[in-house]
Amino acid sequence: MTEYVTVTSDAPLGRNGAIKLYGPEAFVGMHAAGKLAAETLDMIVPHMVPGVTTAEIDALVYAFIKSHGGVPATLGYRGYTHSCCISINHVVCHGIPSEKTLKSGDIVNVDVTPILDGWHGDSSRMYLIGDVPLKARRLVDVTYECLMLGIEQAKPGNTMGDVAHVIQRYAESHRYGVVRDFCGHGLGRLFHDAPEVVHVGRPGTGPELKPGMIFTIEPMINIGKPDVKLLEDGWTAVTRDRSLSAQFEHSIGITEDGCEIFTVSPAGLHKPPYA
Ligand code: MF3
Ligand code: CO
Ligand code: CO
């Protein structure tokens, strides 16, 4: 069944399938890395406007993370050569920064993962470009609510299935589709570690949540069906039915009585509109 291992030394522990339970020093490190992720997502807010290229946003993200003593985890990760992922409209995740420009009406996810002092802070938010139709804004709002409902369930004694279930129930009550092909993940000194954090499931199923666990929750919600397809570039995931998709992501740590969110916006820019 599910294995847990208490992380006692500072020596980085590899990926062995067990769920790591971290101590207070890890929480301090994750708070710092998570804060840098959140500040990066705050910093780009005024730049997310019609006409800007996603490569320009990527360059801003790179410069900001570097100047704050961090390194983008995605740079060189499995052959990925950019500092963030930028996923527009029907792109579900892992959109590659390019010379493509943002246009009015777009909904855009930016996902950043700075490594600071060896700890990974992984977070993403949605941005509304110019005038966005109500239908798209509703998707973005519901997706944010899905993430926060999931986080409310992230406490000792609950299971991953409890987190997944509230996300699925809320999304499907709006007749949206919850993406199955990508999930959240444990993280810490590693970018992607056990456990898998699924976003659909039944209450009481899956690994039990214990104090010291550190992981992301990052639901991807589609206006249409849950199905995704991978583009030729090997990274870009899009909705099969070309419907709009949204995502928010936080990195969290389970405490004795709930959880701490490491990636809260210091500027209070939690969800759009940010103005
Ligand atoms: N930040 C993404 C996540 O939330 C992973 C991106 S990996 C990349 O897990 F290589 F596509 F950048
Ligand atoms: Co993640
Ligand atoms: Co991410």
From TrEMBL:
Entry EC no(s): 3.4.11.18
Residues at which a divalent metal cation 2 binds: D122, H185, E218, E249
Gene Ontology terms: biological process: proteolysis
InterPro entries cross-referenced by the UniProt entry: Creatinase/aminopeptidase-like, Pept_M24, Pept_M24_MAP, Pept_M24A_MAP1
Gene3D superfamilies found in the cross-reference section: Creatinase/methionine aminopeptidase superfamily (3.90.230.10)
GO CC annotations on file: cytosol
Cofactor: Co(2+); Zn(2+); Mn(2+); Fe(2+)
PROSITE patterns, per the entry: MAP_1
Matches recorded under HAMAP family: MetAP_1
One Pfam assignment: Peptidase_M24
Catalyzed reaction equations: Release of N-terminal amino acids, preferentially methionine, from peptides and arylamides
Species of the source: Sphingomonas mucosissima
SUPFAM superfamilies referenced in this protein's UniProt entry, alphabetically: Creatinase/aminopeptidase (SSF55920)
Residue sites binding a divalent metal cation 1 per the record: D111, D122, E249
Gene: map_1
Claim: Protein transport is one of the keywords in the record: no
Name used for this protein in its record: Methionine aminopeptidase
Known role: Removes the N-terminal methionine from nascent proteins. The N-terminal methionine is often cleaved when the second residue in the primary sequence is small and uncharged (Met-Ala-, Cys, Gly, Pro, Ser, Thr, or Val). Requires deformylation of the N(alpha)-formylated initiator methionine before it can be hydrolyzed.
